[in-house]
Amino acid sequence: MVRSPLALAALATVAVPGLDAFDVRRPARPGTDFDTAVVIDGHRNRWVVRAPQHAAAGAALEAEVVLLSMLSAECEAGRLPFAVPAPVGFAHLPEGGRAAVHAEIPGGPLRLERLAPGPGLAAALGRAIAAVHELPTSLVENAGLPAYDAGEYRQRRQAEVDEAARTGKVPPALLRRWEERLEDVALWRFRPTVVHGDLTSDRVLVHGDTVTGLLHWGDACVADPADDLAWLLVTAPADAMDSIMEAYQMRRTELTDPHLADRALLAGELALARWLLYGVRTQDDEIIDDAVAMLEDLDAHTREDHDAEAAPQLA
């Protein structure tokens, strides 16, 4: 069931007493698990309404709501340098579950090409991610979201690689590369932290050189902080990464993780394995083909890097 913008606006007026809907707009990038709209009231205030499309999304929303209420308190106390989409009202849905409404956070999605070396947006992004990792892990645990120690998380990664291997679609050299890193015990000595769990440029809102908000906290957990850096190491301009990591490290109190970047790169690679597994589970040939093509590209690039490293030794 896909709800129309007008239906979502009606839910917003129920959720927030006194809200007089003047206009309603679809977001630029609608999600797949939630019907979403931006409702503008008579005072030009902007509200975001999210209604789950299925029961699993509804359950995820309920867990996220508990966490967001606690994160909002962290924002008010100044321990998070950005806003979170904490709901201000709810509307029950006929089929069960409820829609949530929050005030729209100012700013627009991060454009990665704007990241540049220096003390601007790149540094602000590093500090924002570090602030998440400095939160008390009890916030996630009290919200009933998953919490893993380092050993458990390594086992989860191993299970993913084993399942991907059984598809027969991962290049053998790439599998060996992953296995070697998973068997390197030193690589997996880290202190678990609160992690957002699904950071992308669409999840990060910015205005100028300021990070104004982080969205979509439904995958938050206590796990490996490297996971929240993986997308940047894969997609951000290389010359901006030093500024991101320097600001990140200066904001963290935990400075004894020499393999953070190594695990982040591995997490970025294993994201392709998870994409493949998603395609296999949903029997979506288009996703499977896309994942296989990306895995083959990764295998080719890692072989080139290996050959380039080996060449000076042979000279």
Automatic annotation (TrEMBL):
Origin superkingdom: Bacteria
Q: Where is the signal peptide?
A: none
**Pfam families, alphabetically?**
APH (PF01636)
Domain Aminoglycoside phosphotransferase, residue spans: 26-249
Q: Gene3D superfamilies, from UniProt?
A: 3.90.1200.10, Phosphorylase Kinase, domain 1
PANTHER family referenced in this protein's UniProt entry, alphabetically: AMINOGLYCOSIDE PHOSPHOTRANSFERASE DOMAIN-CONTAINING PROTEIN, AMINOGLYCOSIDE PHOSPHOTRANSFERASE-RELATED-RELATED
Q: What is this protein called?
A: Phosphotransferase
